[in-house]
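Open question from group meeting: does this chain pack into something compact, or does most of it stay loose? Before anyone orders reagents, we agreed to write out a predicted structure and look at it together. Recording both the input and the output here so the notebook holds the full record.
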Amino acid sequence: MKKDIFSSTLRRFVLYIIIIVLLFSSIIIFQTAYSIYDRQKITVENVYPMIKNEVISRQTSLYSNYSSTAYNAQAYLYDSIEKLSSISGMMILIFDEDGRVISYAPKNIHLDEQLVYKESGPLFYLPEDSNYKSLFDIKKELIEGRKLYNKIIGESDSIGRSFVFIDEYSTSRTNPDLTKKIAISINNYKDSEKQTLLSNILLLLLPLLIFMIFAISIISIFAKSVSKPLNEFLGLARSVSQGNLKVRIEYSDDKTEIGELSKTFNNMMDKLEMTENQRAEFASNVAHELRTPMTAIGGFIEGILDGTIPKDKNEIYLKRVSDEIKRLTNMVKDLLILSKMDADDAPLQKSRFDINDIIRRSIIRFEDEITNKKIFINASFSDENTFVYANPDDIERVLINLIHNAIKFTNENGNISIKVEPKKSKVYVYIRDNGIGIDQEDLKNIWTRFYKSDKSRGKDRTGTGLGLSIVFSVIKRHNETIDVKSQKGIGTEFVFTLENAEEEENS
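Structure tokens returned:
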């Protein structure tokens, strides 16, 4: 079952939008509620001193032994508290540590029903189960955020925080040591505050909800436009995973990232297809190149064993078998070298060495071939020593291959010139011969593995067709350049560059 990228992409974007909206909603609710609570606190801080002054002015009268005096003080206090409650919009409840309700406002039928009588007269007390006594055990003058009305007037009639101020008041004019702890509890009770909170939250959340709907719509359109080419990419990728390297994507808009991705994908597929073709051709060439000498070896040995080849010629044919085996050995060795270069991801080990000395050693290595063909070697060095920075073993392999090819394809009494010329940060190495040359149509293919022109194939039965491929791989691995110029019947010149170690040291 194919998975549509559009659905997963859209779900992901919608989830992000919902998270963002929820985050902003939480912030809005918090800020709105906090603003209301902060306004309540400011109101309480302004109202509390006035309430306290009223209590202080009547503190001794409230606890007078004369009932009429206490009643009158409480009545006046009720009247003052009622006015302050009406002005501030707050519910005020004043009670002492014995649970005695000294005053409260506004008049609340539900609160009246909850209060209890302990003595005859107009004295009201808070019920024991209201847990009011625990307030007086808290060592704070102000207790903020404590809900006191759960069992008295009900949670539905209040909103916000409670503020409880606890002070000690004198209860006797003659004995100042007689005191009572009195709590002044102030709390918001207006239902309009709830409506204000909800309306403010709704007013701010509505644009967010509209934004969320709009954003999801826009994202749906955008995700659909993006997912179409991505789904096409997904289908093509599945096709590539099944071995189809001929797939290409059509996308005309090169100015977008999708267009650039399409172009890059097509370029990648071109290179993959070319690499696969080269691999198949390489495998075919290897099979062909191995089959030819092995067939020859098998034919010679069978001819010797069954007597087809006369005994007096056995030595000649065994020499041919030996040559073919050497050719196979060289081919396997060259293949191993190329394989190692292709797979080696380790950093190239470079060192400083004298390229002139490597050239001298390489020439001496072919002393017998040079002497037999009476070839004149002209080595031209600008200095006695020319130091380069490279891998000496790899560069020696390059020189051996190029010098060997020059000797191989140069006629008797021919000339080979080798020149080393430093130019600023590079050292140029020239190897030129006046041999048979290379056809112009063959020049572009000389670096291809196992490629040999018809002329060279006819002249050289021992070559593996891998020498120049090794040369090219070595120079490319050094991040240097190599070039070739050739004319049919006139000769060939190879030139490659190396890093100038002298220039490097000076810099």
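Observations to bring back to the group:
Residues 454-459 have pLDDT under 50 and may be disordered.
The chain has 14 helices and 14 strands.
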